[in-house]
Design a protein that fits this description.
The complex is a heterodimer of chains A (804) and B (60). Chain A is of the alpha+beta class. Chain A contains 29 helices and 28 strands. Among the domains of chain A are: 54 residues, no CATH class; 92 residues, Alpha-Beta Plaits (2-Layer Sandwich); 101 residues, Calcium-transporting ATPase, cytoplasmic transduction domain A (Distorted Sandwich); 106 residues, Calcium-transporting ATPase, cytoplasmic domain N. In chain A, strands 16-28-27-26-17-24-25 form a 7-stranded mixed sheet, sandwiched between helices. The longest helix of chain A has 36 residues. Chain B is mainly alpha-helical and 60 residues long. Helix content of chain B is 65%, strand content 0%. Chain B contains 3 helices and no strands. Chain B is elongated, with a radius of gyration of 21 Å. The termini of chain B are far apart. The chains are: A alpha+beta (804), B mainly alpha (60). Chains A and B meet through helix 5, strand 5, helix 9 and helix 10 of A and helix 1, helix 2 and helix 3 of B.
Chain lengths: 804, 60
């Protein structure tokens, strides 16, 4: 049978490159796996746009499941429309759509040539890293919903979600910071250049007019840096002081202010050189550090909640007519229609049709749940089968599932305060303050007022925790970059530190440890003839139950034969007659097995004409390398397993997890509570999960790792990890530990520099030259040390991975 | 020495010009998408090769 499958050459779809399994559409000797893919090809061909297929092979996106285009109708709702269109002058409108299906240069080409498909489109521009397309269109000639449908028709379904309606101002923030860096860098360079003649000549130039001019230019250039570029340090430290808490920005702000006023004093009272270049340097380097710290992954959102999971609108029946309604406007008592593969957006009562709800994403349970009229259906499930009508009983924000998001302890999310960089920085500032006060007292007793003041003030200039902070920022920034190359995306730098503290790891089973949607099927029992195999496959193909589907897939050929008397007993099994042969597939009880066990998971028995022939067993397929990963984590961490699924795999998994560390049939709330209980026992928990059912637990855990499949939704988390990289978890931990060691190493370096600086400053003899040399020198050596070390470590870890 | 004064002022003014150019480019989003333009610049060749009546691309 296996040979049979391989004998036929594998046909791949010209459009999307997937195997043409069940159907095969052919036009012009080109094969398509589904009607959807063929349609896209025809649209492109009609418009002479087949260059799409020349740029990369199989550039398309699989179109087997096509979304209902009616959902775009809501875009013509005035309120929704205005929130999507970000510019309109009466004739032209600009809209930005997020198209997660975009993946190659062909996609960019096609999406930037939309104007060929419809003359009402003026232009379109793709932002590939963000997977966005910005479309300019004539609003009188094409409705916004039609624009969305156009994108959809060529295979790029715009993802419209409620969270899009709430605009994000983040873009202008990064721009502002870039401008600040530009100004500070400009001032730093020029002031430095102007200060050189004075430094090199020893003590001022011969020409006092020139001296004065240089100092004045330096002062003028420093003004925007002091008042504009550094404002975020003042604001942040002011906020922290108001909350009676000392954050790392306080010493920085203090250093900037002291340096500035000390320089003013030097220029106007002492008629000497100021420390303007040092001040500009501090601001410039700190801003660059912040920029790298905030560089995150544009395409990945770490803060998604239920709003981005649910669609934008839902079909509502009113007086016998169906209309689209924005989800946010959905009210109790509304009658909604949910079609095949659509999500149920709110807790509702089933009032019409037969519910087959697939909760796999919410609960991890892989079998669809049957719902009858009058049953309460929780939000988040996906209807499989014919359309159903439901009556909403709870608003979207109040439903069982969305409550998960309201259950999280907000207090623990204050990452920054716990960071050891912050703590070290704070102590460091205090120590410097104490030392300089002692020096002040010493010089005062000696009767040298001028020196005493210098000894009090100038240590702040050299000993600002600048280098200290930069070491952490650059180490973590570079480490994040390398994590990204592994396919692991971190929300921010603090995550690395939190990872090093982890001592308990909790895994979700379904979709995380197992490969979703693939079960391995095996048959044991009397040998089945080819004819019988064929008949069983045909019967199994009649049902939508996952086990039936698995049997049909396993046996292959499902064509021909007329099936008679097909009956399906929900949760039990199916039976039918084919050419006089009575076939039953189902549980032990269903086929009337003698001495059957009451509840058995993952098994389906086959009975031919009332006689049991054998059974199929279904097992979840675990990821390759899963065993090795668990083995290498076992010694250092306490491992737990949480599953929303049944305990069919318990025996297999007990080889890897202690029996009391495995929990099955867990609801999303159970998972959340479990994480909380671990934390109460002072465990530092990392949770790995993939579905909405893990969303609460992921947020509650100290480090939440969302395992991303090709689907574009990942619940809110600290880390988003490509599912292929899951088994690299041990390498991930060892790299995080290396990063921490690098930070500690560079702390030592920066302390050496600070001791040198303090040596001068405490004697009241810190000249502008010394400050001007020490500041950039320490910064540059520390930055190159940290980036160098993290790069080396990354190469080493990656090298080890390749060797495996 | 007055020539140095002129030179210093000139150098600061020139540098300021570059600073303004930088600010302009940031405000026009030139640092936002650093990947797509590199792909986009290859497209014109493709479409002219494939099509005879390729109309000029609309400006951004």
């Amino acid at each position: 049978m296996a040979e049979n499958k391989h004998a036929t050459t594998v046909l791949t779809c010209y459009h999307c490159g997937e195997e043409c399994k069940d159907e095969d559409f052919v036009i012009e000797e080109k094969h398509f796996c589904c009607f959807g893919c063929q349609t896209v090809y025809e649209i492109l061909q009609d418009n002479d746009m087949c260059a799409y297929y020349d740029m990369s092979t199989h550039p398309g996106v699989n179109r087997r499941v096509i979304a209902d285009t009616r959902k775009y109708a809501v875009l013509d709702d005035e309120q929704v429309r205005t929130s999507f269109v970000h510019f309109s002058d009466g004739t032209q409108s600009h809209v930005t759509f997020y198209l997660p299906a975009m993946h190659c240069s062909s996609c960019i080409w096609l999406l930037e040539h939309l104007h060929k498909l419809d003359p009402a489109i003026i232009s379109s521009r793709v932002d590939f890293p963000k997977k966005e397309v910005r479309i300019v269109f004539l609003e009188k000639e094409i409705a916004l919903s039609k624009v969305a449908m156009l994108c959809d028709s060529v295979g790029y379904e715009p993802l419209l979600s409620l969270s899009d309606l709430e605009q994000k101002p983040e873009r202008s923030f990064q721009r502002k910071r870039l401008i600040k860096i530009g100004i500070a860098g400009f001032a730093f360079g020029n002031v430095m250049m102007l200060a050189f003649p004075e430094y090199l000549s020893g003590a001022g130039l011969n020409d006092p007019a020139l001296n004065n001019l240089f100092r004045m230019i330096a002062l003028v250039l420093s003004l925007p840096v002091f008042f504009y570029c550094a404002d975020e340090f003042y604001i942040s430290s002011w906020k922290s002081l108001k909350n009676k808490y000392l954050n790392i920005d306080v010493p920085i702000a203090l250093a900037i202010i002291i340096t500035f006023f000390r320089s003013l004093y030097a220029v106007f009272v002492e008629h000497g050189a100021g420390y303007f270049d040092t001040m500009n340097g501090i601001v410039f380097f700190m801003l660059v550090g912040r920029y790298f710290q905030d560089l995150t992954y544009k395409t990945i959102s770490f803060d998604r909640d239920y709003k981005s999971y649910f669609p934008l609108s839902v079909s509502v029946v009113k007086k016998g007519e169906e209309a689209q309604k924005p989800l946010s406007a959905l009210e109790n008592g509304d009658i909604i229609v949910v079609r095949n593969q659509e999500l149920i957006p709110a807790d509702a009562l089933l009032i019409k049709g037969k519910g087959q709800i697939d909760y796999s994403f919410v609960t991890g349970e892989s079998e669809p749940v049957d719902k009858r009229i009058g049953d309460l259906v929780y939000a988040g499930g996906r209807q499989v089968g014919a359309a159903i009508e439901l009556k909403v009983v709870k608003e979207v924000s109040q439903s069982y599932l969305t409550q998960l998001w309201n259950n999280i302890d907000v207090s623990r999310k204050d990452d920054e305060k716990q960071s050891f960089v912050q703590i070290l920085g704070r102590y460091f500032a205090l120590i410097v303050l104490v030392i300089s006060t002692i020096a002040f007292a010493y010089w005062l007793l000696q009767g040298d007022m001028q020196r005493a003041l210098d000894a009090l003030i100038t240590p702040m200039i050299v000993a600002c925790p600048c280098a200290l902070l930069l070491s952490a920022t650059f180490t973590n920034g570079n480490a994040i970059r390398y994590f990204g190359k592994f396919g692991i995306y971190l929300k921010n730098a603090f995550v690395i530190e939190k990872m090093t503290k982890t001592d308990a790891i909790v895994f979700d089973k379904t979709g995380t440890l197992t490969q979703s949607n693939t079960t391995s099927t095996a048959y044991t029992g009397e040998t089945l003839t080819a004819d019988l195999q064929h008949k069983i496959a045909v019967v199994a193909a009649q049902s939508t139950h996952p086990y039936s589907k698995a049997i049909a897939r396993y046996l292959g050929n499902t064509t021909l034969y007329g099936v008679q008397h097909f009956t399906e007993v929900q949760g039990q099994g199916i039976e039918a007659d084919i050419e006089g042969t009575h076939i039953q597939i189902g549980s032990a009880g269903f086929v009337r097995m003698p001495n059957a066990l009451p509840q058995e998971h993952g098994v389906a028995y086959i009975a031919i004409d009332g006689r049991v022939q054998g059974r199929f067993t279904f097992a979840n397929k675990y990821r390759e390398g899963f065993e090795r990963m668990i083995k290498s984590l076992q010694n250092r961490y306490t491992l737990y397993l949480l599953s929303g699924d049944n305990d069919a795999d318990k025996a297999y998994l007990s080889a890897y997890f202690p029996a009391d560390h495995m929990h099955f049939n867990q609801t999303p709330h159970d998972k959340l509570r479990f994480i909380k209980s671990l934390q109460l026992r002072h465990k530092n928990v990392m949770m790995l999960g993939d579905g909405l059912n893990d969303a609460g637990a992921l947020q509650q855990a100290d480090t939440g790792v969302a395992v991303a499949h090709s689907s574009n939704f990942t619940p809110a988390s600290d880390v988003v990890m490509d599912v292929q990289q899951l088994t690299q978890l041990p390498a991930l931990f060892s790299y995080a530990h290396t990063a921490k060691r690098v930070i500690l190493g560079s702390f030592v370096l920066s302390i050496i520099y600070n001791v040198v600086g303090l040596y001068f400053a405490l004697q009241g003899a810190l000249s502008p030259v010394v400050a001007a040399i020490l500041m950039p020198l320490s910064t540059i050596t520390i930055v190159s040390f940290t980036t160098g070390m993290t790069t080396l470590a990354a190469r080493w870890v990656m090298g080890k991975r390749l060797a495996e | 020495m007055s020539v140095i004064i002129v030179l210093v002022i000139a150098s600061v003014v020139v540098a300021g010009g570059f600073l303004l150019a930088f600010i302009w480019s940031v405000k026009h989003g030139q640092y936002e998408d650093d990947y797509t333009p590199s792909v986009r610049m290859l497209f014109d060749d493709e479409s002219t090769a494939n099509k005879s009546h390729s109309t000029n691309k609309p400006k951004k």
